[in-house]
Amino acid sequence: MASPEKYLIAGNWKMNGTLASLSMIDELMKGVSSRDLQRQDIMLCPPFTLLSRLIDKTATLPFLIGAQDCHMQEKGAHTGDISAAMLRDLGTDAVIVGHSERRADHGETNEIVQAKAESAHAHDLTAIICIGETLDQREAGQTLAVVSDQLTGSMPALCTAANTVIAYEPVWAIGTGKVPSNDDIALVHQNLREILTSRLGEEGERIHLLYGGSVKGSNAADILSIEHVNGALVGGASLTAKDFLAIIKSVPEL
Ligand code: PEP
Asked: Catalytic residue at 169?
């Protein structure tokens, strides 16, 4: 899994991509250098339809592969769902749970997200747990209360740096081109770190805290230099090798 000593740059393709999109892996490989890989782990999270092909294509390449969701149960009568056991069976490394689009589109609560993360852990997948406030919540001064509540409500009791990544993604920053100020990101990440260390001690210090929301080549270096920002979850700018490489190249020295 992702090394706690490096940055983690994860691309969430969302509901984008067909077989033709896999050619971007060749372009990415041409651009990624050993210097880049010393600083960061790179993860790609394609839609379910591309997972198997992408895992095969990257078998000898230095990319981690994640899914975008899993069911909380291992198997059964859940038409259209995919379990963590199935993802692990394919060779998937990680799974995003609780993305704000799933919380909004599918009514996923903290309890559901926690159960999904537990299932991911049980099947040897890293759970990338997403949290973040809406614009209304931010404007009402509730950001820290909301994200603290989401973090404590969505995290399984026994999280480690190997099996858990937390992604702070303000809902209003996703896909909008808007990004909080560095001070605002620093405040939230500091708060999240305190919760993690008070719950998990030293292990909580090592858990990756990603920022997500309109990260691109032009702002990545700035965002990644903020204390307690250990990487980025990237949506739109992970869809082309050119845009994703611009972020990869911006990752600071460790
Ligand atoms: C996301 O969906 O996780 C995300 C951060 O999207 P974008 O980078 O496009 O804002």
From this structure: yes
